[in-house]
Amino acid sequence: MNARRRDLLPLVLTVLLAGCGFHLEGGGPLPHSIALVRIETTDTESDFYFGLRKALLAAGTRLDESGHDDSATVLHVLNDSVAQRILTVSALNVPTEYELSYAVKFSVTSNGRELIPAEAHTLVRDYAFSENQLLAKEREQRILSAALANDLVTVVMRRLSSL
């Protein structure tokens, strides 16, 4: 009898998880009202833009690349910027810690109607810096920037799924 219970345990857990509304992050589809999306931005080379495209496609949304479909929901990326500032310096006036911030401002319209008014989100991380490890620290800065952009994509996708 114990072996049977042990075999049924994964099935019971799966049913309980499905029943409570559990979904993997980013795994849920977007509302049908935004099945076709056009991204309007001035920077099509940023980490945020690439992450947003990937997330929209993964959610089953079609992208209007041509910009000619008037029925498309338009996601306006009004600001997409990365900034870095010095937090601390050594006794020799050499930077030892930086703060990296990634800011995004966006709005969403559909058929001339504003679905999400312009809202800004900023994420900040700090990291240590050493001149002796210059290449590694530059790579760390790029990785942190991409991670912040990815976190901001998650924020935008959650806002879109709430429509």
Question: In a few lines, what is going on in this structure?
Answer:
The chain is an alpha/beta fold and 163 residues long.
Explain the overall architecture.
The protein is an alpha/beta fold and 163 residues long. It is 36% helix and 34% strand. The chain has three helices and five strands. Strands 2-1-3-4-5 form a five-stranded mixed β-sheet, with helices on one face. α2 crosses α3. 17% of the residues are buried.
The separation of the N and C termini measures: 48 Å
List low-pLDDT spans.
none
User: What is the helical fraction, as a range of percent?
Assistant: 25-40%
The neighbouring-strand order within the major sheet is 2-1-3-4-5
**Average pLDDT metric:** 84
Sheet/helix structural class: alpha/beta
What is the C-alpha radius of gyration, as a whole number of Å? 21 Å
Helices, by number, come to: 3
What is the secondary structure topology, with strand pairs?
Elements: H1 2-19, E1 36-40, H2 47-58, E2 62-63, E3 73-89, E4 95-110, E5 113-128, H3 134-161
Parallel strand pairs: 1-2, 1-3
Antiparallel strand pairs: 3-4, 4-5
Q: Which properties best describe this structure?
A:
alpha/beta, five-stranded mixed beta sheet, 5 strands
